[in-house]
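Predict structure. Chain length: 871.
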Amino acid sequence: MTSREIRQAFLDFFKSKGHQIVPSAPVVVKNDPTLMFTNAGMNQFKDLFLGEAPIKFPRVADTQRCLRVSGKHNDLEEVGIDTYHHTLFEMLGNWSFGDYFKKDAIAWAWELLTEVYKLDKDRLYVTIFEGDASEGLERDMEAFDFWKQWIAEDCILLGNKKDNFWEMGETGPCGPCSEIHFDMRSPEERTQVAGQSLVNADHPQVIEIWNLVFMQFNRLKDGSLQALPAKHVDTGMGFERLVRCIQGKTSNYDTDVFTPTIDFIADKSGIKYGVDEKSDIAMRVVSDHIRAVSFAIADGQLPSNNKAGYVIRRILRRAVRYAYTFLGFKTPFINELVPVLAVQFSGVFDELIQQQDFVQKVILEEEVSFLRTLSTGVQRFENYVEDHEVINGDFAFELYDTYGFPIDLTELLAREKGMSVDMDGFKQALQIQKDRSRAATAIDTGDWVVVNDDDGFEFVGYDTLTAKTEVVKYRKVVAKNKEQYQLVLSVSPFYAEGGGQVGDSGELISEETGEKIYITDTKKENGIFVHFTNKLPLDLNGTFIAEVDKAKRLDTENNHSATHLLHAALKQVLGTHVNQKGSLVNADILRFDISHFAKMSEDEIKQVEDIVNAKIRENIPLKEERNIPYQQALDSGVTALFGEKYGDFVRVITFEDQFSKELCGGTHVKATGQIGFFKIVSESAVAAGVRRIEAITGSRSAAVIREHFELVQHLKELMNNPKDFVSALGKIIDENGALKKEIEKSITEKSLALKSDLEAKIEQVGDINFLSTLVDLPNAEAVKTLAYAVKGAVNNLFLVIGAEFDGKPSLTVVISDDLAREKGLNASNIVRDLAKDIQGGGGGQPFFATAGGKNSAGLKTAIERAREFLS
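Prediction complete.
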């Protein structure tokens, strides 16, 4: 069977068992603060396990794109080295939400593997949870009894808590699990060593392929286990491993999941796969990593220097580095794999083929940038080793942290020079950085404390800004030593952050006491609205009036509706290729990122502004449609965004049917006239193929226009109100430039006039012409001109010049090239030493260096002390 057939057989099998087949969620997580990426198939169903969302389908199956490169589930450093770890992988899964449990899950797993996929029953082993006395958990005899109906008892093995008790994280849904392992060894090997002894022993040919998780508990903050409202099944089967078993390969990378990309890499590099271990690892790394990077970008995560964007950049740079070091690629090529992947996943994950050009161009620019970084890092390394015998840990960390230079590449370059890297020093510096970062982002989140048993939640913020409500539950959160509280309300008019729109703030007012609690923010977590406060109400059991900050909400709505008009206008002016790649909408500004590969011209910006403002003046009424079937909305021509997970029913926001029609959960103006006026304030590049537009509306745009008008009026008054303001201002700028040139010429002449005076003061100390003196010049450039003039006229020169600019002391050291080379005199080292007298620092090159400081009184001491360096 081909990989495509294997995937489809899984979906068809569970469809026949009454499961609803659902699409993969985006690999980039948008509304869960505990996750950056989807790292397991169950992530999109977490709120169902916790009982915090209604269950539409009790049985579900899918194939989910997953990414494991950070946090608890981190496989990155194993990828490419072994044959079965991956960054991005597919997880085939079937779920039961309070429907079937262990009996059916086990029976169907066995039926699929042995009757549909025809895997050899004698090569299969299963594990069950052995129990844990410290947790009060007994052995999972229920799973054992069901398994022994299908498999010999000596093939049912006990597993400890680490292997057979699945937990999503430190807190959250969890339960015992039953793993299925497959023995791929040859008959001879199997005769010599029993497969049972190799299960969960990291044997490359005895591998786990499927994990059946029986969700029964919720792990609380204090570590205790709480029974879930209903029992669930969550299974995950590694698609790449399954294909390997069915196709009889010894490596995941030998299956048709990876051979198209590996063959492409081998052809481009001219290196045959399977000949050399180092180049084989490099090809596996590139083949794996391009999948992760491509799908993350397609799902809306661009490479960047922080958070999820940094993870994607790191994965791509690891691929580039392996290709650079072991495959000889000194120019970009990894981006050329995107079309290969797009074809391979067409009809499965069409997000990639629909955005192929965009994804490829983003990766191309990242490659170009990092190859430049590698060249810079190599040059810095070469300069460093000229003066050192060991690669200091701090320097290795500087290359890694500041320049993005991989530590293993530093080690490789060091070995080629017969040198070593102080890895202990590097690890210490890295740990200090990690500790600092962890401390800065550490959040201690308590368990929810239930106040009122209220299973329902109602958001009424589309229709009203006030609502009568109760506190359902709360929890305490400590971040950066600051206590905050999070409340869940039974009814809320507060919009929770999402779709680029910030969350509402406002007040919670007690009906009984009149006490006011300020709501600082509102966010969504696993489908529930969480309201942030700095303190708790005195009476949590009372009734409250929830009241949104009206002014902030209206300004935010202006900006949000303006983004919809902007999006439509951009498509008209720039082309239909324009798609939203990110947005931020708050009360002050709107920020809108689009897919476009050229800087917008002034004329294009004006056209967009004119279209948007024309639509504002038309005062187009909002057309809002709620609970529209998703496919019906798509068929009507609505704009949907890549990387968003839409439900079965959606909300459609329309401003004129033939102009702007988008899926959106945000809040909007009742008619476009409320926006007032729209003005683009900046347009810039964010990443390859992504432009960022920032704009203002409403009262903010009126204020900015007023400020600019007043500024121009003030400038006119200063210039005596000329008739042609622009020409008059240009004339002043020209005159100012001419005067600057005259001043610079005068300073240069003064500097050169001092040249003869300094030459006359030079004394000969041995074969060195030495002078250390103070001069009166207006700036550092003048001193540099003088210093180089003297250096050009005097051989074997050692010159130290002190000066003061605007009350700040300065030192300049000049050494003739011959002296620097033959006597070992180094201007950079000397100036750093002398700078201590002026309480400063500096540096430069061996023949020319400068330093600045803050203690002018020390200049005389430094000038006198310069003579010490002659001995």
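Summary: DSSP finds 25 helices and 34 strands in the chain.
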